[in-house]
Amino acid sequence: MTTTRLEMRPSPGLTTPTKRGLLTTSVGSFPKPEYLQKARNDYTAGRIDKAELDRLVRQATKEVIDLQEELGLDILVHGEMERGDMVAYFAEEFPSMHIGGLVRSYGNRYYHKPVIDGELRWDEPVTVDMWRYAQSLTAKPVKAMLTGPYTMVEWSFDEHYPDRRAAVLAMADVVRQEAEALDKAGARYIQVDEPAVSTRFEDIALANEAMGVVTKNLKAKTITHICYGDFAPAYDDLVKMPVDQFDLEMANSDYDLIEVMKRKGFNAEIGLGVLDVHTHQVETVEEVVNGIKMALEVLPPERIYVDPDCGLKTRTRDEAAAKLKVMIEAVRRVKAELGIE
Ligand SMILES: [Zn+2]
């Protein structure tokens, strides 16, 4: 779907014919219930089989969908109950990738880094079944979630391709086929997460080229989520990424990117992160209202989607629900002020 290139700025006296916008959503992951963490350990230890694990994953997914329905979100996510690490999950499923030995990340944290050890190819859908299941539970649209080609390669060891560019473009073709399978299954929103982009902005042209491969044939609205970056210096290149919507963390950086958008212009839609997912503290409704209003100085409401900064998996279920409740109340207030249905 092509982005509507509208240079619209809301002005106080202006009444738009269709009062729509400020749809609420979330980034992707939800906190996993304890029984699921236990089930995963039991599965690894051989105490339960795959069918039992899958049953519990689906139960947890249903709970995430029900919670979002109850809270009143507009665009739902399936919560990623079947996923652990966002790269390892796909590395386990894609041919020519496997999970390698332990490597150190930061401090004293170790993790199993995925390895690309052959020609990358796509044989069958990885995410479609779970997306379809989640979508079957609700009349609201459920976003489909993929990890982007740049992040897949950047957070893996490449033992096959001559250089990073070759690996990223080969991965882009694999992710493209997965995205097209979701598109064909009926996903109206496909999100391609590229958090690694913010750790290496010198590669942004390559990341953009790879994203172009993924999104070029899709009917769905395309979104990229990129987090924890100092986007300002890379802004001009970042906004060239070929997606309909940029989902960015704003609350954690005091909305400083809004100023850059105001100065330089912004032609896409924004997924406006209004909840800091790194703190236990629940935002106030006023804080979130202020954040949304800052964005409204730059974009019309129909191009603003309101969501948390990042996935909610680091919070407890109660914290996640409390934060989302505040977000929804803030959106309700702004909508009432603007006369949006
Ligand atoms: Zn994030």
Describe this structure in words.
The structure is a single chain. By secondary structure, the chain is an alpha/beta fold. The protein has helices at 34-44, 50-71, 88-93, 128-136, 149-154, 164-185, 204-215, 235-238, 256-264, 285-296, 317-338; strands spanning 23-24, 97-104, 110-116, 144-147, 157-158, 189-193, 221-226, 245-249, 269-273, 304-307. β6, α7 and β7 form a beta-alpha-beta unit. α1 packs antiparallel against α2 and α6 (164-185) packs parallel to α7. 44% of the residues are buried. Zinc ion binds at residues 27, 195, 225, 227, 310-311.
- Residue-averaged pLDDT: 93
Radius of gyration: 20 Å
Bound molecules: zinc ion
Beta-strand portion reads 5-15%
> How many β strands by DSSP?
10
Largest sheet: 7 strands, parallel
* Unreliable sequence segments: 2-7
List the SSEs and their pairings.
Blueprint (H helix, E strand, L loop, with lengths): L22 E2 L9 H11 L5 H22 L16 H6 L3 E8 L5 E7 L11 H9 L7 E4 L1 H6 L2 E2 L5 H22 L3 E5 L10 H12 L5 E6 L8 H4 L6 E5 L6 H9 L4 E5 L11 H12 L7 E4 L9 H22 L3
Parallel strand pairs: 1-10, 3-5, 4-6, 6-7, 7-8, 8-9, 9-10
Antiparallel strand pairs: 2-3
List keywords for this structure.
341 residues, alpha/beta, seven-stranded parallel beta sheet, three-stranded mixed beta sheet, 11 helices, 14% strand, disordered N terminus, binds zinc ion
Describe the structure concisely for a colleague.
With 341 residues, this protein is of the alpha/beta class. It has helices at 34-44, 50-71, 88-93, 128-136, 149-154, 164-185, 204-215, 235-238, 256-264, 285-296, 317-338, and strands at residues 23-24, 97-104, 110-116, 144-147, 157-158, 189-193, 221-226, 245-249, 269-273, 304-307. It starts with 22 loop residues before the first strand and ends with a helix.
